[in-house]
Q: What sequence folds into this?
């Protein structure tokens, strides 16, 4: 009897967003899963819980709780999206609004499947609501999952409005095209990706551009800025509340990321040495030290709390890092709210800082990769230099002494470098590694303890194997 | 009316017998002590009087042919013919043979002798022997086949099971019938109870049909008796203590352990422990440093709790009206800070004979309960935090808002929560008010046919208050806003019963009894939840609060029932009984709401056979057999369980950074599929038993064997997560319980030294026969990241007992690298780590190597009750035990697991090192790469225990002295001292082997660090005026 009006359908869409920002996904487990599968992070110390450490060490198994949470979270997103797409044809009171709702549902379903297919391979492809408990779906071919994602994003891009015509936080045509670009690149369709990315407007009410200040992308006051194409919204009600998995209209709307990574809180994951040393620095012969280093991480001696406090080694629990041969304590700054809070407040504070999912700078970097892969080296370099020209970054243009751009291989290196320093810890690196590993772009395997033939993919969760007879017996290799 | 003197004279002078005359006399027990309150009735009439405090009575009889009946609880009733006597002194014999004992069987009573089902009775004395707040706790160990397990702080209901677990998805709570009214027992004062009758097998319980699978416990409250008004006073006070504590690291040991753990993983000293910080004062203004601090967190969290109960009762009446009224107060402080329970109750029960045919009466009880309890943060119980708190931190910091000191996660390298702060800063209370009353009308058309009509209302409301002020402990706990939660749940149940009862003996041989009942029960539950924040600590209401949210819902259900029962016995020898109940319950799917629950039983009183008459030693011998079908109370599933409703506006998303309630971001969803075939879980049970009494029933023995099979078990079919939606609950699966029960006693009822020994033994075996057809049909539960890394702790699968413990088998500790490489591949293993068994011999240690590690279900349970009296002294000893069960000691993972830095048990200092290899504790290494904490046989321990549940010594003040010194005001005073849980014999290493369940079923027997059963010392006084 429900989902008969456009308003009810929209409530169904809102419920998809709700589950997306809950504990299983973007407010906690989702960034842990992406981060621990990348080479950007290292364990902060003994306080890091075992299942997370297992993922970093590649000792995870089908019962790993982090991986299970993300799987469950995305499939709940998919189910709720399917409720919307299945019921849309019943809605007649406001067809335009219903169409928009379907577009949003398809965007979110596509994002879910992209995370699933890239991390687990072929997964059960569910595109309608199960009618009874025995409606099992087998693992689909990877290609079939991609086909569904591309179809959904293409449909979404066609019906979704620009950002000026919708609530802040809802999916837009630009978000769908940006996601489509990501997806097509991952599949190797660089021309298709480029076409999708170029549909993103760069001017006008719906246009995007780089913010002059890099940090605007990670701070609370500058949410929904000109560079932000899609973000997951969090709100701090001021009560230190965090929703561990409840579902009601009164649940806390915060993310616990600040508590997990903040230099004066758990500090569960810290930047890896590899990531820290990736930044251009005068200490290693670069013409200029990349300012994004100190925008992305805090080290002892940095000021925080609106300039009122100075970070010390003693404030930061756990492991140290080695930067240019010097051992010191370094912690994440991106998305942390310590920049405006004292240590005693920030040490336990879940925050309301929105998680930026798609930034325009990623679009430019993806365009650079598309150009390079399709033979347009100059175009690629041009895109890269747009990133480096951001006002408060102002890094010297490519080519530099360390990064020549004479060949496709040179530019590939520059893209890999630039993406790592620009988009560090934004839950993209692990997906990039999968793509670049296949192309042989790494001279050495980036992931420590990586076991070829196993660690390319996560194991199918035990609960899925146990309860889905069509998946049982079809575990990924090596598990 | 004549004065006694006149009457006396008249009987002497008159030569003709006078129609009315007066009899006086005294009633004593066998030792000659006066018995007060004995009912003296003229047989065949309703004329009755009671004996006074010195045992004397005076009654007017109509004629010489009158027969007086002397009856008193605990004594055999005795008949004496008047035939010319004017003074009749009677000595009553103690009645332990219980042959004439009346058993409440549901919609009526039966003589014990003619009962054919498995029914156990517990009297009021036993119920009030223990200093416990609830009837359920008082029943522990008293009834064979009934188990009671402690499950929380004062005011929390224990887990009660009759004949094992019969449902997988739903609790095993029996149905409680209080004076004919189904309801909860939380508001009952155990001292108001006259008797408890436990209907264990289906032939007896099926009269309650659809709700009887878990057994029925019928509670009858006290009624007024005929005779002089008696005032009773019953009071005790005691102190409770924790029985056992952990041996935790002190500050110096902690420092040593920290280096062993973190040092092994290359992790630096947490900032706090670095000398510059460690030698700082614990707070500004203190002269004590962290290095000098050595807090015993168990000392800080556990405390002695005072326990007290006071009850005053008034009872009395005459032929026409009888009344019992009481007022009680119970107050129990917890043995941990921030826990308490109290109850005030008032009762009035009365019966009135309107005329020869019509009797009316009522019971009325009202109570106010108040519980303060702790809500553990996440899954971490307060005891978990007690273990984990660093000994170098103080409990308090007067400079902090709220006054407590909390660890700083980063600075201290660990994130426990100060358990004292947690218990005291957050105020969680349940405030309950209950009113239950019913009225009846009985019309006796003839001596063999009566009609009974009952109407009752049960109203209960519980207001749960949760208040957290603005506070900041400088570390893991703070709240920048005060939060106020007010959740009110109230329920109203009405019950309307019409009953026709037939009872007649034809030709002195054929006894026929029958009942027919029509009953309607309706229930409405209202729920209102409100929440809000205040920016100050003075206003504790939602007035002008911020972030206000509120929600109101109500639900209803209706149960229609038709009940019939017919019993027949021939010469009291051959007994047959059959019953049927047809229930219609609104909660089931359309078309599946009605069901029949039949039962039948037979009995043979072998002792009544002529060939047995010669055998004097056998005083009673009865064989019984019964069969019945019962159901599970459907309302435990909620009121509309078959349909999955859309939760409209049930979630939200803050588009545009707008917080809840003010935007268009509210979302609607549903999370389960519907099942339009949902119907009753049905249990078919067979029971065979016998009752044997030897030597005038000095020795008694009852034994039962039973088999119960439940079909259509309602389960949430485990759905693959890829469906993204929970499967519906459905009738899938079946389960079986088989068991044996024995009650044996020896009763010495005469002489100065009397005693009574009763032993109870119960054995039950559970097996899951089938589960959902899909997948491999297993249900795992209990996984928790803190307790073993998140892997499930129990598994339920076909062919095994329900929820067996599930995990790896530990084979030892790897002593060197060759040991590791020689073993099956075990990811992350290094010397010093646990070696797990390659059960399936595939060369890899993985999830497929997990096995059944044992069951929480005991192989058998037993208890022994000994009571004795000598002159004015009495003694009671009550032992209770379980044997053969396992406990998953999850709390040991907290105490000894060593996966992250926290304070721990001193056992961690014995951890394996290359130079300390002769140990059962694996190496200390932060991060636990081998997952030594995973659920495994390492954490499974024997749960067997034998406990001295009660020891009591009482003394009755000499009655003659008492009467003379109080001018006949006080007739009886008994004083006593007692101890509960004085000692426990067990190998279990946790705090308490009596382990309940964290959150519902399938986690029974997992010790997550629950509130332990305390030891109690108490003294009490009972007086009659």
A:
């Amino acid at each position: 009897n429900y989902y008969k009006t456009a308003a009810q359908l929209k409530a169904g869409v809102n419920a998809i967003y709700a589950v997306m920002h809950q504990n299983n996904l973007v407010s906690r487990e989702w960034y842990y899963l992406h981060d621990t599968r990348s080479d950007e992070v290292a364990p902060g110390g003994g306080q890091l819980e075992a299942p997370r450490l297992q993922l970093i060490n590649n000792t995870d198994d089908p019962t790993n709780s982090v991986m299970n949470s993300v799987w469950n979270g995305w499939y709940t997103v998919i189910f709720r999206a399917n409720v919307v797409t299945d019921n849309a044809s019943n809605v007649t009171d406001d067809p335009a609004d219903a169409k928009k709702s379907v577009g949003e549902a398809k965007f979110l379903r596509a994002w879910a499947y992209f995370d699933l297919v890239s991390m687990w391979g072929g997964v059960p492809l569910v595109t309608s609501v199960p009618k009874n408990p025995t409606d099992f779906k087998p693992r689909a071919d990877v290609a079939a999952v991609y086909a569904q994602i591309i179809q959904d994003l293409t449909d979404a891009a066609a019906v979704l409005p620009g950002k000026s015509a919708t609530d802040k936080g809802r999916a837009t045509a630009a978000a769908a095209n940006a996601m489509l670009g990501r997806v097509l690149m991952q599949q190797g369709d660089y021309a298709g990706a480029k076409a999708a990315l170029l549909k993103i407007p760069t001017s006008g009410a719906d246009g995007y551009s780089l913010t002059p200040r890099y940090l605007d992308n990670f701070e609370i006051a500058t949410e929904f800025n000109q560079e932000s194409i899609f973000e997951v919204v969090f709100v701090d009600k001021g009560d230190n509340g965090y929703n561990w998995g409840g579902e009601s209209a009164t649940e806390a709307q915060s993310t616990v990321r600040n508590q997990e990574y903040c230099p004066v809180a758990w500090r569960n994951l810290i930047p890896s040495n590899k990531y820290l040393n990736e930044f251009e620095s005068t200490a290693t012969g670069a013409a200029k030290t990349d300012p994004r280093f100190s925008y992305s991480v805090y080290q002892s001696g940095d000021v925080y709390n609106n300039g009122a406090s100075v970070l010390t080694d003693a404030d930061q629990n756990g492991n140290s890092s080695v930067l240019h041969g010097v051992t010191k304590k370094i912690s994440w700054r991106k998305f942390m709210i310590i920049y405006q809070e004292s240590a005693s407040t920030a040490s336990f504070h879940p925050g309301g800082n929105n998680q930026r999912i798609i930034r325009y700078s990623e679009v430019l970097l993806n365009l650079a990769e598309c150009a390079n892969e399709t033979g347009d080296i100059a175009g690629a370099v041009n895109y890269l230099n747009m990133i480096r020209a951001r006002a408060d970054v102002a890094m010297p243009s490519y080519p530099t002494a360390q990064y020549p751009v004479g060949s496709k291989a040179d530019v590939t290196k520059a893209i890999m470098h630039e993406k790592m320093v620009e988009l560090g810890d934004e839950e993209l690196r692990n997906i990039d590694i999968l793509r670049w590993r296949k192309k042989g772009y790494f001279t050495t395997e980036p992931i420590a303890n990586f076991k070829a033939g196993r660690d390319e993919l996560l194991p199918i969760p035990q609960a899925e194997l146990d309860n889905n007879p069509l998946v049982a017996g079809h575990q990924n290799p090596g598990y | 009316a004549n004065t006694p003197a006149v009457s006396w004279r008249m009987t002497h002078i008159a030569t003709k017998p006078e129609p009315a005359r007066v009899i006086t006399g005294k009633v004593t027990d066998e030792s000659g002590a006066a018995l007060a309150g004995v009912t003296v009735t003229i047989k065949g009439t309703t004329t009755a009087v009671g004996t006074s405090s010195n045992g004397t009575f005076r009654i007017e009889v109509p004629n010489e042919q009158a027969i007086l009946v002397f009856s008193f609880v605990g004594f055999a009733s005795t008949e004496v013919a008047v035939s010319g006597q004017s003074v009749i002194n009677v000595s009553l014999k103690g009645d332990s043979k219980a042959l004439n004992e009346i058993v409440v069987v549901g919609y009526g009573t039966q003589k014990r002798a003619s009962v054919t089902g498995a029914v156990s009775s517990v009297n009021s004395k036993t119920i009030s022997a223990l200093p416990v707040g609830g009837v359920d706790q008082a029943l522990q160990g008293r009834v064979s086949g009934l188990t009671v397990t402690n499950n929380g702080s004062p005011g929390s209901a224990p887990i009660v099971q009759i004949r094992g677990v019969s449902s997988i998805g739903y609790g095993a709570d029996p149905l409680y019938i209080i004076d004919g009214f189904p309801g909860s027992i939380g508001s009952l004062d155990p001292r108001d109870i006259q008797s408890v009758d436990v209907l264990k097998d289906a032939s007896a319980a099926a009269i309650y049909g659809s709700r009887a699978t878990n057994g029925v416990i019928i509670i009858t409250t006290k009624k007024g008796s005929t005779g002089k008004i008696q005032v009773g006073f019953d009071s005790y006070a005691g102190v409770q203590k924790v029985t056992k504590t952990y041996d935790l690291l002190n500050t110096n040991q902690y420092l040593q352990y920290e280096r062993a753990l973190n040092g092994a993983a290359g992790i630096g000293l947490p900032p706090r422990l670095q000398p510059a910080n460690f030698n700082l004062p614990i707070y500004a203004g203190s002269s004590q440093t962290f290095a000098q601090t050595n807090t015993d967190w168990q000392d800080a969290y556990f405390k002695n709790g005072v326990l007290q109960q006071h009850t005053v009762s008034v009872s009395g009446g005459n032929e026409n009206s009888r009344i019992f009224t009481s007022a009680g107060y119970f107050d129990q402080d917890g043995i941990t800070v921030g826990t308490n329970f109290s109850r005030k109750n008032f009762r009035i029960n009365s019966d009135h004979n309107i005329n020869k045919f019509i009797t009316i009466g009522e019971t009325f009880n009202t109570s106010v309960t108040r519980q303060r309890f702790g809500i553990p943060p996440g899954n971490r119980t307060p005891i978990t935090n007690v273990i984990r708190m660093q000994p170098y931190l103080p409990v308090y910091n007067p400079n902090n808002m709220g006054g407590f000191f909390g660890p700083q996660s980063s600075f201290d390298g660990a994130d426990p929560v100060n358990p004292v702060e947690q218990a005291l800063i957050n105020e969680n209370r349940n405030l309950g008010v209950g009113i239950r009353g019913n009225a009846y009308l009985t019309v006796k058309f003839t001596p063999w046919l009566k009609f009974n009509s009952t109407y009752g209302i049960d109203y209960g409301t519980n207001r749960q208050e949760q208040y957290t002020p603005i506070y900041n402990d400088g570390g893991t706990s703070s709240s920048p806003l005060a939060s106020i939660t007010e959740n009110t749940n109230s329920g109203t149940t009405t019950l309307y019963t019409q009953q026709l009862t037939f009872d007649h003996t034809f030709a002195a041989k054929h006894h026929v009894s029958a009942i027919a009942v029509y009953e309607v029960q309706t229930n409405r539950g209202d729920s209102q939840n409100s929440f809000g924040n205040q920016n100050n600590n003075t206003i504790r209401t939602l007035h002008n609060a911020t972030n206000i949210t509120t929600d109101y819902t109500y639900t209803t259900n209706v149960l229609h029932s038709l009940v019939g029962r017919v019993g027949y016995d021939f010469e009291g020898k051959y007994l047959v009984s059959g019953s049927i109940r047809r229930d219609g319950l609104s909660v089931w799917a359309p078309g599946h709401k009605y069901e029949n629950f039949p039962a039948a039983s037979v009995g043979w009183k072998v002792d009544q056979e002529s060939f047995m008459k010669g055998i004097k030693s056998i005083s009673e011998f009865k064989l019984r057999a019964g069969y019945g079908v019962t159901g599970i109370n459907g309302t435990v599933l909620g009121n509309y369980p078959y349909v999955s409703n859309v939760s409209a506006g049930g979630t939200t998303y803050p588009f545009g950074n707008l917080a809840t309630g003010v935007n268009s971001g509210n979302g609607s969803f549903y999370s389960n599929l519907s099942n339009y075939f949902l119907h009753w879980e049905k249990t078919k049970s067979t029971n065979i038993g016998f009752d044997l009494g030897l030597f005038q029933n000095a020795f008694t023995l009852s034994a039962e064997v039973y088999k119960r099979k439940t079909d259509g078990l309602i389960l949430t079919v485990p759905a693959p997560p890829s469906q993204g939606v929970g499967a519906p609950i459905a009738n899938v699966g079946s389960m079986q319980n088989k068991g044996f029960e024995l009650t044996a006693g020896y009763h010495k009822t005469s002489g100065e030294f009397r005693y009574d020994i009763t032993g109870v033994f119960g054995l039950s075996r559970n097996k899951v026969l089938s589960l959902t057809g899909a997948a491999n049909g297993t249900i795992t539960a209990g996984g928790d990241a803190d307790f073993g890394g998140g892997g499930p702790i129990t598994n339920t699968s076909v062919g095994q007992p329900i929820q067996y413990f599930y995990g790896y088998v530990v084979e030892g500790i790897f002593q060197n690298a060759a040991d590791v490489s020689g073993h099956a591949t075990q990811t992350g293993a290094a010397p010093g780590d646990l070696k797990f068994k390659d059960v399936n011999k595939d060369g890899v240690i993985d999830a497929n190597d997990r096995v059944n590690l044992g069951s929480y279900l005991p192989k058998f349970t037993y208890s022994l009750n000994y009571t004795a009296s000598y002159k004015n002294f009495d003694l009671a000893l009550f032992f209770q035990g379980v044997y053969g069960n396992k406990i998953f000691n999850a709390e040991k993972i907290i105490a000894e697991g060593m996966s992250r830095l926290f304070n721990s048990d001193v056992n961690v200092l014995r951890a394996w090192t290359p130079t300390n290899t002769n140990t059962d504790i694996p190496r200390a290494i932060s991060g636990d790469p081998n997952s030594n904490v995973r659920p495994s046989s390492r954490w499974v321990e024997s749960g067997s225990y034998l406990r001295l549940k009660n020891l009591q010594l009482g003394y009755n003040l000499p009655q003659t002295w008492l009467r003379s010194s109080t001018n006949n005001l006080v007739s009886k005073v008994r004083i006593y001292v007692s101890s509960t849980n004085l000692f426990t014999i067990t190998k279990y290493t946790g705090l308490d082997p009596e382990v309940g369940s964290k959150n519902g079923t399938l986690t029974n027997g997992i010790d997550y660090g629950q509130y332990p059963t305390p030891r109690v010392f108490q003294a009490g006084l009972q007086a009659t005026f």
